[in-house]
Amino acid sequence: MKVVKFGGSSLASGAQLKKVFNIVVSDPERKVVVVSAPGKRFAEDIKVTDLLIECAEKSLKNEKTDQVFEAVIARYQDIAEELTLPEEIIQEIRLDLTERLNGDKSKPDRYMDRMKASGEDNNAKLVAAFFRKMGVEAHYIDPKEAGLIVSDEPGNAQALPEAYESLSSLRWRSGILVFPGFFGYSKAGDVYTFSRSGSDITGSILANALKADLYENFTDVDAVYSVNPSIVEKPKEIKEITYREMRELSYAGFSVLHDEALVPAFRAGIPVQIKNTNNPTAQGTKIVADRNNTNGPVIGIASDKGFCSIYVSKYLMNREIGFGRKLLGILEDFGLSYEHTPSGIDDISVILRENQFDKEMEEQIIDRIKTELHADQVFIQHKLALIMVVGEGMRHNIGTMARASKALAKVNVNIEMINQGSSEVSMMFGVKEIDEKKAVQALYNEFFAPVMV
Amino acid sequence: MKVVKFGGSSLASGAQLKKVFNIVVSDPERKVVVVSAPGKRFAEDIKVTDLLIECAEKSLKNEKTDQVFEAVIARYQDIAEELTLPEEIIQEIRLDLTERLNGDKSKPDRYMDRMKASGEDNNAKLVAAFFRKMGVEAHYIDPKEAGLIVSDEPGNAQALPEAYESLSSLRWRSGILVFPGFFGYSKAGDVYTFSRSGSDITGSILANALKADLYENFTDVDAVYSVNPSIVEKPKEIKEITYREMRELSYAGFSVLHDEALVPAFRAGIPVQIKNTNNPTAQGTKIVADRNNTNGPVIGIASDKGFCSIYVSKYLMNREIGFGRKLLGILEDFGLSYEHTPSGIDDISVILRENQFDKEMEEQIIDRIKTELHADQVFIQHKLALIMVVGEGMRHNIGTMARASKALAKVNVNIEMINQGSSEVSMMFGVKEIDEKKAVQALYNEFFAPVMV
């Protein structure tokens, strides 16, 4: 049995819904269909979710909502007309949305969640109606009725353990089950949405609860690439990748799937298949617990800008029990999360995203480290890029570091820092931001496209 | 003006004292002479300090001390006879030691410190007497009178700030000043010793207090080697090295000078010259604040065995503010100090010396990390060696990492981990203990003795 999730662009028009239908019915294992709200039909189009957010914001400010409300309805209507669905379905959607719009505004974030959730909820009803019109047994599943119980955190809900238990009984329902993504209900019966891209999370929760054999995630790319296509032209596609590798690559430039969305599937060991709705015969990328080591130690290279390094040195630091813990405690007081802490004997650097603080906080941090830790030297190096070279095979492949560092030296990139952990799925290189593209290209050439001399 | 310190083997016999005298008078800048207690004359010999510890331990247990007491006196007597010094000096030493032996035993660690300190104290009197007999103006300096005030920590005293002020006036005393190393006096007037090898510390404090131009440290090796001579035969000698490089190398195998001893000289920017009493014309090694970059990015390679790595992984660890701080807090609760913390996105390893804990504590640590941090995986990898490749020039020398990692790959050594900090004086490689020698040899060949192909 497979849980199949379709993203917004896969459900943006009647033509897209026909593709979705053909994909679902072509494999009898595809039992549960998780849907997003209708997405963009063309680059300048507006997603239904964004229209709903605008509508809710206007309503909360007591501004006129007619125009944006009708824009939402029009999106569903366009699809329904294209598919010659009966008018009733649009009336049902209009009724639902009107009710939400005129609902209780005393708790604005809950109001917002109810409005946003309607995008997926109503789309699921529409999709189910279309499937039935095409002659297959299909049911819209209400997450409340099905028991998708979540924590009461607006915009950041988490599925509660009992949700898995309740949802598991969906397995015994007949027909194709069309389930709206992105939200669940609190124990008190209120709507709460997951974080953005939350439909991926719904699919992953259902795959876990129903012990699916596979969680298929249909989007608009053929596969996950081994490197960011905006840096390297036509990069190699990844056929199979482990959860850990995917997570390391998600550092940057690999945002096909929401990190958090993988967790429920990962915990249950269910493989996740990324596929393209617009090109369903393409092999796609499969995310698995273990993979066969194929060619080469590296599976992908990710990079991101916008990091800085707080450097702290103190003679005999190494002898001071508690130094590192105190340093991290200071950063925690400022609410900062950090990425790595490479260290020498008497110095330590903390690498973190620089958008977390401004000049003023920076000075406060330096001041506290100097005063409280009696450091000899504290300074911040800005504009760093981190490059992750990722691959499960890397650890026991002697010479990978030599190849990577030589490739960087050849193109004259200075390695500002290196961090290679213990159980190795990745090597991290810190370079100056201006060297990022050159460095990624050189590493890609080394591991994926050796140039003949 | 120079402060000159002589180690125990440089003062072990009359013949050695003659060398010391010739060294001191050959340079009129050598004003302050810091002496250790007489050391070993031959491999099986016993140092006076060790005899004194035995004597103090026996006395504290009310056992007979005559034999070991006389063994101490005999060492001074042998030297005095060899140098035909008047009998009075030995009588003075005997009187002093008898008084200490019969002193207050109510605080055993202070009694021990008084007994140990006599080794240096009496040797300074002997050396001053010999210098005077040779016709130069020389004075024994009593640390109490000179104002070397220290904290009251037996065996681990620290010089107090006011000590520097008091000692500075020694500058205006005439003649050569012979100062006993290893101890000072508390404000209450009691003897407290520095940590082992504390005579190096005394010399460094005096160099700082007297604003010396140079702190010469005479020992029994020609120079600091670029690599451990027990791993690489006849390694290159280091002519000039910075404090930071010296400190990184002191990690292992470079124990010529006590780390802590460098601090006072380092803070005052006074260079430290390592020289050989038995071969004073050899250039030796100079430890400086800055050095001219000569040939190659690497100045030395140090390595040590006996490390282990605690590996902790948890999916989405990267998102958890406070994870690293909590992990280090647990280790701190066990009193453990750590060396490095290389990390991936969702894993972190803590590298530490494995002699700090046993099997039982290991299990407790793993248990606490699993329970309190909800880690997915926690395990310990034993028998690791750390190799430090050290050099100030390394940071801006593109390709150093490529050369190092290629050298290791060539001899088939797997790099278990790499840690390269921010302001780089060193690169750290973790390898299996069994690969240590092979790895060090390969790195030495790469950076110091390139083999022709």
TrEMBL record, chains A, B:
The protein's annotated catalytic reaction(s) are:
L-aspartate + ATP = 4-phospho-L-aspartate + ADP
Going by the UniProt record, its keywords in alphabetical order are: Amino-acid biosynthesis, ATP-binding, Diaminopimelate biosynthesis, Kinase, Lysine biosynthesis, Nucleotide-binding, Transferase
Q: Which residues bind ATP?
A: K5, F6, G7, G8, T219, D220, Y225
Q: For substrate, which residues are the binding ones?
A: T49, E120
This protein's superkingdom? Bacteria
Provide the top EC class: transferase
What Gene3D superfamilies is this protein classified in? Answer: Acetylglutamate kinase-like (3.40.1160.10), Aspartokinase, catalytic domain (1.20.120.1320), VC0802-like (3.30.2130.10)
**GO CC, alphabetical:** cytosol
Q: What is this protein called?
A: Aspartokinase
Source species of the chain: Neobacillus thermocopriae
